[in-house]
Design brief:
The protein has 666 residues and is an alpha+beta fold. It is 27% helix and 33% strand. Mean pLDDT is 91; it is low at 486-494.
Length: 666
């Protein structure tokens, strides 16, 4: 076994690898860019080495600097995590030449499977069914249009060396082919240093289901069942689960057999993932093989009890697999939700800044439920514009899919995060959606259910009443404590029986009765009284209690006279008022938002890649105005109506803050 390994990565995956290495008694070395000098993975490691400036091309993607870090620390092996150099055959060969073990597959397998075009050719020769498409590299837009016309729309334009949703675009028309080709190439060049792309048929209503495989150096290969990764946005996975509620035993066995056969054929070693697209009739087609650890590997670990990072390390050290295929059985259900620094209310634009408050739910195993949080940040850490916006991977495991979903909903409600925008409200909406509950999924789920973007969770009478009851319990508890203070502060007066709770501008009359032992009986809007009990204390960010006998979790924050309550993806501003004040509050005027119709504002912190128009130019609706890159993704900003460009205030290469003016219109 190795004495020292270097983790050639950052963030949550670097921390994840270190946890297993520490359990195995292996010394760890972290590498970091200038932007990551205070990162959590640097703090966790036994030793850390600076490897260059913030841009990944000058640090985490530098083979020479990683090799030098190995030399100066005496690292015997390197775990690449995912992304960066994890599927770089030249990196694997360079390590081998230096006498350092690559904790991953052989370079030849990376080359055969890591290139999407070559992997499809290899799979086709091996008898694995593949998606119809053109396996050659696309030379230019003219060839792309011709091939797309031959295959038939819609088509998928994909980076040959891509992964993680980068360099992928769906085109449903000739116009979208031209735009998609340009964006896919640019993103691929930026993320992987390789701008080759190919085109394949896009299968409507597909499910994305993948098989985890393990292979050692002694000819042993097995699969660890499947993961369903159909909930995606812009080809980036958002929520994953294991097992899949869609597969039957016959399909599961057939997919597993093909995955194992492909791994054997390519001479695979280590952990890898064979990805399939599955249609409504359970026909499945090979998409690609990821020759690395997947982001979503924790759900497989939770349902099988197998530590994939440990297996990768043991395989790299030459140990044979001690697991047999017949021993791999699913235990319960696991769900993973990816928490990102992005604003779901502004088309998921990236968000950067400092985490002024970061309190994920406590990791635990109790009453048959496991909560796990893989993270690479801490309270006070800074989210940078240079890297992927992932903050954490929140996972739950329970005996059934419904129980795992309920646990996830509660865990998301207990995940407090301030200082940046984040996607927790969106994740809560997804796991609470009827289609998720029913298991009616496809990769088009988000596009179909949120065609105009995420606008928040729609209010319901039942949910409103829950918010009212929480607000009443909080406000009354605060008044009780103020009344009990024995200092010079004036008492708040006796508790009233009649109150009004305002959610925003909507009033809810309530009747409150003290039932003793910290329990209230509250009647909302004339309904029957409901018992509300909680041990909450003023200042706590999480409210846990029982409402009508059911356990309830919510986030709460005092904002002056308002209590902000967040639960199940929805945030409300609540106030407890006496009935007269409640009536007057409804007629107070609202402040109108500023008019921004004559300017194009930068919707995210990012780098201006290009300006597509000139001053004095008349622009049609839908026409491109500018392209802004943030967190390795390029975003085209388009005109919403016909306008004339009055002045351009930003230039290519300029870094802009959110809401900076890019151009003005007449």
């Amino acid at each position: 076994m190795f004495k020292t390994i270097l983790i050639a990565n950052r963030g949550e995956i670097a921390c994840r690898v270190m946890k297993t290495a520490r359990r195995l008694g292996i010394r760890t070395v972290a590498v970091h860019s200038d932007a990551d000098r205070n990162a959590l993975h640097v703090e966790m490691a036994d030793e850390a080495v600076a490897i260059g400036p913030a841009p990944a091309s000058q640090s985490y993607l530098s083979v020479e600097r990683i090799l030098e870090a190995c030399r100066v620390t005496g690292a015997e092996a390197v775990h690449p995590g995912y992304g960066f150099l994890s599927e770089n055959a030249a990196f694997a060969r360079a390590l081998d030449a230096a006498g350092i073990v690559f904790i991953g597959p052989p370079a030849a397998a990376i080359e055969a499977m890591g290139d999407k075009i070559e992997s499809k050719r290899f799979a086709d020769r091996a008898g694995v069914s593949t998606v119809p498409g053109h396996l050659g590299v696309i030379a230019d837009a003219e060839e792309a249009l011709r091939i797309a016309g031959e295959i038939g729309y819609p088509v998928m334009i994909k980076a040959s060396a891509g992964g993680g949703g980068k360099g992928m675009r769906i085109a449903r028309s000739p116009r979208e082919v031209a735009d998609g080709l340009q964006l896919a190439r640019s993103e691929a060049r930026s993320s992987f240093g390789d701008d080759r792309v190919f085109i394949e048929k896009f299968i409507e209503e597909p499910r994305h289901i993948e098989i985890q495989v393990l292979a050692d150096k002694h000819g042993n290969v097995l699969h660890l069942l499947e993961r369903e990764c159909s909930i995606q946005r812009r080809n980036q996975k958002v929520i994953e689960e294991a097992p899949s509620a869609f597969l039957d035993q016959h399909t599961r066995a057939a997919m597993g057999a093909q995955a194992v056969a492909l791994a054997r054929a390519v001479g695979y070693e280590s952990a890898g993932t064979v990805e399939f697209i599955v249609d409504r009739d359970r026909n499945f087609y090979f998409l690609e093989m990821n020759t690395r650890l997947q982001v979503e590997h924790p759900v497989t670990e939770l349902v099988t009890g197998i530590d994939l990072v440990e297996q990768m390390i043991r395989i790299a050290a030459g140990e044979p697999l001690t697991i047999r295929q017949q021993e791999v059985m699913p235990r319960g259900w696991a769900i993973e939700a990816r928490v990102y620094a992005e604003d779901p209310y502004r088309n998921f634009l990236p968000s950067i800044g400092r985490l002024t408050h970061y309190r994920p739910p406590a990791e635990r195993r109790e009453n048959g439920v496991t909560v796990r949080n893989d993270t690479g940040v801490y309270e006070g850490a800074e989210i940078s514009m240079f890297y992927d916006p992932m903050i954490a991977k929140l996972c739950t495991h329970a005996p059934t899919r419904d129980a795992a979903t309920d646990a996830m909903a509660d865990a998301l409600d207990a995940f407090t995060l301030d200082g940046i925008r984040h996607n927790i409200p969106f994740l809560s909406a997804l796991v609470g959606h009827p289609r998720w509950r029913e298991g009616r999924l496809s990769t088009a789920f988000i596009a179909e259910e949120y065609p105009d973007g995420f606008q928040g969770v729609a209010a319901s009478e039942e949910q409103d009443h829950t918010f009212v009851l929480i607000a009443a319990a909080i406000e009354i508890e605060e008044r009780r404590r103020r009344n009990g203070m024995r200092d010079r502060l004036a008492p708040a007066g006796p508790l009233r029986q009649k109150w009004t709770v305002a959610l925003g501008r909507r009033p809810f009359p309530i009747l409150v009765e003290d039932a003793g032992n910290g329990t209230l009986k509250v009647a909302v809007d004339g309904a029957a009284p409901v018992e509300v009990a909680a041990g909450w204390r003023p200042g706590e960010r999480i409210w846990r209690g029982r409402i009508g006998g059911a356990d309830v979790v919510a986030q709460v924050a005092r904002r002056g006279t308002i209590v902000e309550i967040t639960r199940r993806g929805r945030t409300v501003a609540a106030r407890l008022l006496n009935p007269t004040v409640g009536d007057l509050a409804q007629i107070m005027p609202e402040k109108a938002p500023p008019d921004t119709s004559r300017v194009l504002l930068c919707p995210m912190p990012g780098l201006v890649v290009s300006i597509a128009v000139a001053e004095g130019q008349t622009v049609e609706p839908g026409e491109a105005l500018a392209t802004v890159e943030a967190m390795k993704m390029e975003n085209i900003l388009r005109a919403e109506r016909e306008v004339v460009v009055k002045a351009i205030r930003a230039r290519p290469g300029e870094s802009l803050a959110v809401d900076s003016v890019i151009m003005e219109f007449e």
